[in-house]
Every structure is written in C-alpha cells, then in structure tokens.
Amino acid sequence: MHVWDATSLITCAKFQVDGRLLLDYALDADTITIPMEVKEETVDSGLPRGFPDAVEIRRRVESGRIAVRAAERLSDPLEEVLELYGLQEGDKAVLRMALHEPDDVAVVTDDRLLYIVIQRCERGAMFLPDFVEKHAARGAFDAPTALKLLMAMRSRLPAGFVEHSARRLEGVI
Fold first, then answer.
1. Residue 168 — φ and ψ, nearest 5°?
2. DSSP of 96-157, one letter per residue?
3. Positive or negative CA dihedral for 158, 47, 115, 129?
4. pTM of the predicted model, to two decimals?
C-alpha cells in the first residue's frame, strides 16, 4: 500500500498511455490510499470546477479502487512542528497517515517539502517516477511501458526527475 498526495494523484488522472490513464496503471501495480483531505482537494474541489481529473479520481474512489481514510492527529508537539513547516492540509494529512501506518508503507508525492519532512520523520517516501521504477522492477509493467508512463508525466514534474528515472530504466546509470 502507498499513501498518495494530491499532486501525484492528479498527475496520474490527467495523462494517458496507450489509451489508459496513468492512474489505472498505478492501481494495477499497487493499492492507493488517500486521506479525506486529499479527496477533498482533488475530487470535492475539482468537480465544481469541471476538472476531468476530479471525475476520474471520483470514479475510482466510488468503485473502491482508491481507499479513502481519515488521518488521525499526531501528538501536539508534532502537530506544532507540522504547522511550522507550512504544509498544506492535504500534505499534513498524508504525513499523519504515513506515521500511523507500519514502517513499510511509503508515501508517493511530487511535493519536495513533503518528501523532506517524511524523510525527517524516518518514513518512506518516493517521487512518482520512483513509483514507476519500483513497479517496473517488480514486473507490474515492462520497461518500454514504464518509459511511456514517465514521458507522459514529464510536463508536471521538475526537470531531471523523469530523465533520472528514464536513465535508470534504460540501465545507463
């Protein structure tokens, strides 16, 4: 299971490879869990604005393919630290959920601050391209498909992220 933040979820609901949303490739590879705040950020806020990605995420939530759970608050001192970081509500909820899960649960994010905070909390985090790499290595999809997935998301990520993963998939680094 992976806990996903809003940015990665939206990216996967926006882009397609071979007529399928990246989101469906991700769901075929692993379980996606999101906190209520991420659902509010992606679906509840996106639907009134007519965002197609919100419709796609809602469909997968309603079908049970994406699990939505409440994120329990942390200790008051840790909640105070989260406030100091200036994380958005959805990101704080992702972190809360990750800290209440077993150590082997990783967060999928494209938010660099959230990634750093999760690492500082000694939990697993990966960027969306890392998720693709990991599941290609496990055989969820072959390397050519993984490369297509990476290229499809390229416009939503900072320069270097996709290229780094692509080079690793190609075996040149």
1. -65, -40
2. HHHHHS-TT-EEEE--HHHHHHHHHTT-EEEEHHHHHHHHHHTTSS-HHHHHHHHHHHGGGS
3. negative
4. 0.94
Adjacent-strand bridge partners of 4: 108
- Number of residues that make up the chain: 173
Q: Domains (ranges, CATH) in the chain?
A: 2-128 (3.40.50.1010)
Q: How confident is the model at residue 171 (pLDDT cuts 50, 70, 90)?
A: confident
Q: Report DSSP state, residue 74.
A: -
**Structure tokens, 94:** 């992702």
Residue 3 and residue 33 in contact, taking contact as beta carbons nearer than 8 Å:
yes
**In whole numbers, what is the pLDDT of the chain averaged over residues?**
96
